[in-house]
From TrEMBL:
Binding-site residues for NAD(+), renumbered to this chain: 184-191, 207, 274
Binding site for FAD: 56, 315
GO process terms (BP): 2-oxoglutarate metabolic process
Name this protein carries in UniProt: Dihydrolipoyl dehydrogenase
Enzyme Commission number(s) of this protein: 1.8.1.4
GO molecular-function terms, A-Z: dihydrolipoyl dehydrogenase (NADH) activity; flavin adenine dinucleotide binding
Listed Gene3D superfamilies: 3.30.390.30, FAD/NAD(P)-binding domain
Entry keyword set: Disulfide bond, FAD, Flavoprotein, NAD, Nucleotide-binding, Oxidoreductase, Pyruvate, Redox-active center
Reactions that this protein is recorded to catalyse: N(6)-[(R)-dihydrolipoyl]-L-lysyl-[protein] + NAD(+) = N(6)-[(R)-lipoyl]-L-lysyl-[protein] + NADH + H(+)
Domain FAD/NAD(P)-binding residue range list: 12-330
Broad enzyme group: oxidoreductase
Lineage: Bacteria, Bacillati, Bacillota, Bacilli, Lactobacillales
Naturally occurring in which organism (per UniProt): Ligilactobacillus salitolerans
C-alpha cells in the first residue's frame, strides 16, 4: 500500500458506473465538466451486468422457447423443439458485453477517465481509491456524485452459497433446475420465477406478504398470477422462509406458511427479498453526508446531499430502486453541478415487472390519487377486444387510465398484458405533458396495434367507446 501519496485534483467525480453513474458522467461531460468515474467491479453497474439487461435477455430466451413450443395452434409444427441452455446463457453474455462495451466506448468519446478501485471518502473534499491489489491513491474533488447502487439482502439461515442463490447466481445457472424455490415474490422473484418456469422448471414462490408483487393492484396481479400458475408455478403467500439446508444434490427449505411449518426440496433456491444501498463503509460520515435509518442518503430535489457539492442518485437514495430513476436523477445532478436549476419531478415514474404477462404502472393509481385528495375516475379497456392482441394470441390483461373527473387530465395509468413496458411509455408522456382523455382519444394510433387499446381506453373514459 502506498502511504502518504500526493493527492491529485479532480473536477467532477462519479462513484459507480451503473445507470445512475454512467448517465450522470456522460451528461456532465456533455455540459463541459471534466469527469472521472471510480468503479470497483464492472462498467455498467448492476443493471447492465447482473440486473436489468441479463435478466431481460434470459426472460426473452424463455419467451422464445415457450412460443416455439406453443405455436402449434398457428399451424407451426413444433415437434423436437429443444432448449440449449448453455447457448441461451452465451447469448445473454453477448448482450451484456455489447452494452457494457458501448458504455466504455462512450466514456472514451467524452474523455471520461475511469479509475478502477473502491472509493472511500476521507473528508468533504477528498477520497481514496483502493485498488484490488491494495494500491491506494488520494484525490481531491470539486463535485462528487455518489451512485454506488445496492446489493441483495441476505436473510438469516440463507447464506448465499452453493444452492442458495442471490439474483446474480440465479442469472448465471448452468442448467435449468427441475425444482426451483424462490423466496420473495417481488420484482426479481416474479420475473425469474416466470422465466425459469417458461424454460421448463417447476417453480415454487414463497412470499411473506398476502400477495406477490404487492406494490401492484390486486386485479392486475391476478392476471400475472393466473399466467404463472398455468405455467407450472406454485405460489404460497403469507409464507415466511425460515431456513435452508443443503446436500450435494438438493436444498431443503423450511417455511412457515399461514402459521404452518412446511418443507420444500429443490435443486436451487433463489432469495430475492429486496436490496440494500451501498452506503456503509464508504466514509460518508467523515464527509458529513447524512443517511437515514435505512442507510439511504438524504438529498434535495437536485440530488444535493447535506454537503451541497456532493450529490447522490439511484439506489442509494429514497424511492423506487429502478434503473431509469437512477439515470433521470443522474441527469438532474449533472445539470445542477453545471449551475442549471433542474429538479426532479416524479409525477410520471413508470415501473414495469417483466413477468410473462407484463405488469406496468405510471403516475398514480386510483387509490394514490384519492389519498392526494384528487377526485378521479378510471377507464379500462381489455386486450381481449384489441385486434392486434387477438392476432398475437395475447388477450390477457387490460389498460387502465386514471383521470381527474372535472378536467379529464390523465394522472395515472396501469397496464397488465403483452408489451405493457412499451405501452406505458405513451401514457407516461401523456401525464408528463398534462394531456387529457381527448388528447389521447384524438391521437391517431396505428392499426392494428396494442397501442390502440390506449386510445380505446380514453374513448371509454369519454363515454363514447367504439370497440367495446
Ligand atoms: P448500480 O447499478 O448498482 O451501480 C453501482 C455501481 O457502483 C456498481 O458498478 C458498483 O460496483 C459500484 N460501486 C459501489 N460502491 C463503490 C465504491 N465504494 N467505489 C467504487 N465503485 C463502487 N431496474 C429497472 O429499472 N428495470 C429492470 O428491468 C431491472 N431489473 C433488475 C433485475 C435484477 C436481477 C436486479 C438485481 C436489479 C434490476 N433492476 C431493474 C434494478 C436496477 O438494476 C437498479 O435500480 C440500478 O442498477 C441502480 O442503478 P445505480 O446506478 O444506482 O447502481
Ligand atoms: P422486492 O422488494 O421487489 O421484493 C421482495 C419481496 O420479498 C417482497 O414481496 C417481500 O414481501 C418478500 N419477502 C421479504 N422477506 C421475505 C421472507 N423472509 N420470506 C418470504 N418473502 C419475503 O425486492 P427484489 O425482488 O429483491 O428486487 C429488488 C429491487 O430491484 C426491486 O424493488 C426493484 O426496485 C428492482 N428490480 C426492478 C425490476 C424491474 O424494474 N423490472 C426487476 C428486478 C428488480
Amino acid at each position: 500500500m502506498v502511504v502518504g501519496d500526493f493527492a491529485e485534483d479532480l473536477e467532477t467525480v462519479v462513484i459507480g458506473s451503473g445507470p445512475g453513474g454512467y448517465v450522470a458522467a456522460i451528461h456532465a461531460a456533455e455540459l463541459g465538466q471534466k469527469v472521472t468515474v471510480i468503479e470497483r467491479e464492472f462498467i455498467g453497474g448492476v443493471c447492465l451486468n447482473v440486473g436489468c439487461i441479463p435478466s431481460k435477455a434470459l426472460i426473452e430466451a424463455a419467451h422464445h422457447y415457450q412460443s416455439a413450443l406453443g405455436s402449434n395452434k398457428m399451424g407451426i409444427v413444433t415437434e423436437n423443439v429443444k432448449l440449449d441452455f448453455a447457448k441461451a446463457q452465451e447469448w445473454k453474455g453477448s448482450v451484456v458485453d455489447r452494452l457494457t462495451g458501448g458504455v466504455a466506448g462512450l466514456f472514451k468519446k467524452h474523455h471520461i477517465d475511469v479509475l478502477w478501485g473502491e472509493a472511500y471518502l476521507k473528508d468533504d473534499h477528498s477520497l481514496r481509491v483502493i485498488g484490488k491489489d491494495d494500491s491506494a491513491q488520494t484525490y481531491n474533488f470539486e463535485h462528487l456524485i455518489i451512485a454506488s447502487g445496492s446489493h441483495p439482502i441476505e436473510i438469516p439461515n440463507f447464506k448465499f452459497e452453493g444452492r442458495v442463490l442471490d439474483s446474480t447466481g440465479a442469472l448465471a445457472l448452468k442448467e435449468v433446475p427441475k425444482e426451483l424455490v424462490v423466496i420473495g415474490g417481488g420484482y426479481i422473484g416474479s420475473e425469474l420465477a416466470s422465466a425459469y418456469a417458461e424454460l421448463g422448471a417447476h417453480v415454487t414462490i414463497l412470499e411473506g406478504l398476502d400477495s406477490i408483487l404487492a406494490n401492484y393492484e390486486s386485479d392486475m396481479v391476478k392476471v400475472v398470477q393466473k399466467n404463472m400458475t398455468d405455467k407450472n408455478v406454485d405460489i404460497y403467500t403469507s409464507a415466511m422462509a425460515k431456513k435452508a439446508e443443503q446436500t450435494d444434490s438438493a436444498v431443503k427449505i423450511t417455511a412457515e406458511v399461514n402459521g404452518e411449518t412446511k418443507e420444500f426440496t429443490a435443486d436451487y433456491c433463489i432469495v430475492s427479498v429486496g436490496r440494500k444501498p451501498n452506503t456503509a463503509e464508504m466514509g460518508l460520515e467523515q464527509a458529513g453526508v447524512k443517511t437515514n435509518d435505512r442507510g439511504l442518503i438524504e438529498v434535495d430535489a437536485q440530488g444535493k446531499t447535506s454537503q451541497p457539492h456532493i450529490y447522490a442518485i439511484g439506489d442509494v437514495v429514497a424511492g423506487a430502486a429502478l434503473a431509469h430513476k437512477a439515470s433521470y436523477e443522474g441527469k438532474v445532478a449533472a445539470e445542477a453541478i453545471s449551475g442549471k436549476t433542474s429538479t426532479v419531478d416524479y409525477r410520471a415514474m413508470p415501473a414495469v415487472c417483466y413477468t410473462s404477462v407484463q405488469i406496468a404502472t405510471t403516475g398514480l393509481t386510483v387509490k394514490e390519487a384519492k389519498e392526494q385528495g384528487l377526485d378521479v375516475k378510471k377507464a379500462q379497456f381489455p386486450f381481449a377486444a384489441n385486434g392486434r392482441a387477438i392476432s398475437m394470441d395475447a388477450t390477457d390483461g387490460f389498460i387502465r387510465l386514471v383521470f381527474v373527473k372535472d378536467t379529464e387530465a390523465l394522472v395515472g395509468a396501469q397496464i397488465v398484458g403483452a408489451n405493457a413496458a412499451d405501452l406505458i411509455t405513451e401514457l407516461t408522456l401523456a401525464i408528463e405533458s398534462g394531456a387529457t382523455l381527448d388528447d389521447v382519444a384524438l391521437t391517431i394510433h396505428p392499426h392494428p396495434s396494442l397501442a390502440e387499446g390506449v386510445m380505446d381506453a380514453a374513448d371509454v373514459g369519454l363515454g363514447f367507446p367504439t370497440n367495446i
